C-alpha cells in the first residue's frame, strides 16, 4: 500500500512554473488522503485568480498515477483558508526574499 510520505515525496516534484519551487514547500497542499488506490489532494493556489489551476491538476495527477498502486487521483481546490507566504517553508521564504 502507498504511504502518505510517498505521496508527499512525489508532490515535491510538482513545481510552480513561475517560481520554480515545489507545491509542498510553497504550502499549497492542505491535505492528502488515501482510499485504497485513490489519492485525494486538497490544495490551494497563491491567488483565487491564478491561471495555473488546470496545469497543477494535470501535473499532480500524472505524477501520482506513476506510483505503483495508484489508479485514481482527485485534486480539489479550495481558498479557505486563503494562501499566504507564511504557509511556505522557511527555505522557500528565504529563497524568495520574504522577511519575517
TrEMBL record:
SUPFAM superfamilies cross-referenced by the UniProt entry: Fe-S cluster assembly (FSCA) domain-like
Pfam annotation, one family: FeS_assembly_P
Protein name: MIP18 family-like domain-containing protein
Signal peptide: none
Gene3D superfamilies: Fe-S cluster assembly (FSCA) (3.30.300.130)
Domain of life of the organism encoding this protein: Bacteria
Domain MIP18 family-like: 5-76
Naturally occurring in which organism (per UniProt): Candidatus Curtissbacteria bacterium RIFCSPLOWO2_01_FULL_38_11b
InterPro entries the record matches: Fe-S_Maturation_MIP18, FSCA_dom_sf, MIP18-like
